[in-house]
Amino acid sequence: MRGTETVTPAWLKELKEKAPGLLIRENVMMKNHTTFRIGGPAEYLIEPVSEQELSLVRQAAAQNGLPFFLMGNGSNLLVLDGGIPGITVRLGKGFSAFGQTGPAGFWAQAGALLSEAARKAQQEGLSGLAFAAGIPGTVGGGLYMNAGAYGGEMAQVVTGADAVSPSGPAHLNREELRLSYRHSALMEKPELMVTKVYFDLQPGDPEEIKRQMEDLQARRREKQPLTLPSAGSFFKRPQGDYAARLIEAAGLKGFRVGDAAVSEKHAGFVVNLGEATARQVLELMRRVQERVYQASGILLEPEVKMVGVDG
Ligand SMILES: Cc1cc2nc3c(=O)[nH]c(=O)nc-3n(C[C@H](O)[C@H](O)[C@H](O)COP(=O)(O)OP(=O)(O)OC[C@H]3O[C@@H](n4cnc5c(N)ncnc54)[C@H](O)[C@@H]3O)c2cc1C
């Protein structure tokens, strides 16, 4: 029908020719792909299943000047209401394998869920990843964020990572990753896409590790609003204090802007009560920052990553 045809851009035709099986979707609502259940459309959402496909997609973006964003499981993201222009990549099924190297060496591909990596390590009698069992991200996203909980964090167990970049494959060792509180060197190197992470774990009793994981899960269920969409702790922990304590002390538990709210159960979480927009979350964030600053002199910084354009 005249007038309703869309023209396939040349770069997309070329990419489809080079990688015929590649899963490419257009205008995909990110609210369906983030734990916050918020976000406008990704212009192109692509799921490569091999390093070769991943490299081809990255090259297509670089050669055609297209914005490029690599997501994990979308559990630490606030995608803005206007969506994400250009190419968004999510690692597909070919990036979820695990393996062992020696008695305590363990590796996981970057698209695997942290919970599955923790379970796999537990089954193999390897201790050190129990902290990650309840973190709803991928191994790649966990490394990028140096995810941590209940005294454990990626920095304690990661020895290195493989990555691909537009200029080819790369390996980063522990020092080069510069992992610190919710920070990694990957934040300053957006060209690096982590494909595999190496861990140094400790031999342990599978039953004991399982008990530890169940205990941490129970603690999460008790304290965190796990039945409502969120991106986890919204703010970073300020030096010497806790964001949740400061927010509660400022009288903001339950504070709302539209359907975005400070959780009644855990003031460190911003939850989506139904139809929250990114704009509402950002307004809520600004007001919380302002009130906490007035009450305590501390400026809370978001831990959640904002991506995309305003709607
Ligand atoms: C209910 C709930 C509880 C949570 N609890 C915790 C917790 O206890 N501790 C904690 O630390 N976090 C927690 N989080 C936050 C979140 O799960 C972590 O930050 C997680 O590590 C994010 O991983 P992801 O795969 O979802 O990454 P995404 O949110 O998809 O992306 C986060 C960032 O990582 C980058 N990234 C993702 N994959 C790669 C890759 N392969 N290579 C390079 N960069 C990459 C993205 O570009 C983005 O900038 C929680 C979230 C929720 C919803």
Task: Kindly describe this structure.
The chain starts with 9 loop residues before the first helix and ends with a strand. It is globular, with a radius of gyration of 20 Å. The chain has nine helices and 19 strands. The strands form six sheets. Strands 6-7-13-11-12 form a five-stranded antiparallel β-sheet. It has a four-stranded mixed β-sheet with strand order 1-2-5-3, covered by helices on one side. It is α+β, with helices and mostly antiparallel strands. It folds into three domains: 10-93, Uridine Diphospho-n-acetylenolpyruvylglucosamine Reductase, domain 2, CATH 3.30.43.10; 96-210, Uridine Diphospho-n-acetylenolpyruvylglucosamine Reductase, domain 3; 226-307, UDP-N-acetylenolpyruvoylglucosamine reductase, C-terminal domain (Uridine Diphospho-n-acetylenolpyruvylglucosamine Reductase, domain 1, Alpha-Beta Complex), CATH 3.90.78.10. Residues 35, 70-77, 110, 135-138, 140-142, 144-145, 147-149, 186, 193-194, 226, 230-232, 305 line the site of flavin-adenine dinucleotide.
How are the secondary structure elements laid out?
Elements: H1 10-18, E1 23-29, E2 41-47, H2 51-63, E3 68-71, E4 77-79, E5 84-90, E6 98-101, E7 105-109, H3 114-123, E8 126-127, H4 139-145, E9 148-149, E10 152-153, H5 154-157, E11 158-165, E12 168-173, H6 174-177, E13 193-200, E14 202-203, H7 206-223, E15 230-233, H8 243-249, E16 256-257, E17 260-262, E18 269-272, H9 278-296, E19 305-307
Parallel strand pairs: 2-5, 3-5, 4-19
Antiparallel strand pairs: 1-2, 6-7, 7-13, 8-14, 9-10, 11-12, 11-13, 15-18, 16-17, 17-18
